[in-house]
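Moderator note: this is an archived Q&A kept for reference. The question asked for a predicted structure of one protein chain; the sequence and the answer are reproduced below.
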Amino acid sequence: MGHLQQRNLNTTRERLRDQVAHHLRAALISGELRPGEVYSAPGLAEDFSISATPVREAMLDLAREGLVEPVRNKGFRVTEVNERDLDQYTEIRTLIEVPMIGRITRTASRADLEALRPVAEEIVRAAREHDLVGYLEADRRFHLSLLALSGNERLVETVGDLRKRSRLYGLTGLDERDQLIPSAEEHIELLDLMVAGDAEAAEKCMARHLGHVRSLWADGAERRPPLPRGPRPVRTGPETAAGRG
């Protein structure tokens, strides 16, 4: 198809799937792959100059993350999230995570909390280096690892699912205006409060952080520039090749 930016991929079999998934996540963040559009694995494989199999496998990984959904005999549709969805996801996360942060502050060891400092610093570093995929991955690891200190695996799974469904809107535009850096630095502030044992302040910081993230979504959506030209989506008319995707 020739519309995705050229990628240099290591052709080692065991790494190819992960590399493709990484580049597809980047394309989702940048808007090269557009919400609501359907893309076929063979079509995307042309952009990577590889076979369709690792692309299909990578797309299945993204489907498990809630970023795309399979469309029978056509490919994968990029999932869409509206403002109402984002409000509801944020409300649920606030109800779960704010009191849980207070509980973890009171029960977790200082050593377990300090073990997360390198991840918090990685979030800030990724924001400053404009590494959006790295930013999202480090942010996910920090929050889920922090909640894991509660010992409640089902809670971690629930929040993980909510995070997948509410990926950041307008992330590229926010990054260009350096608006991700203050949000990134809140992770270190939160950790400092928890290490100090100040549960009440940690809860307030967590509530503020979730509200800040939600406002960034809204701001990013309002200021988001027109989507760049991306890979051609799959046609839905009779000319669509059977079995694609």
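Archived answer notes: The chain has two domains: 13-78, 83-223.
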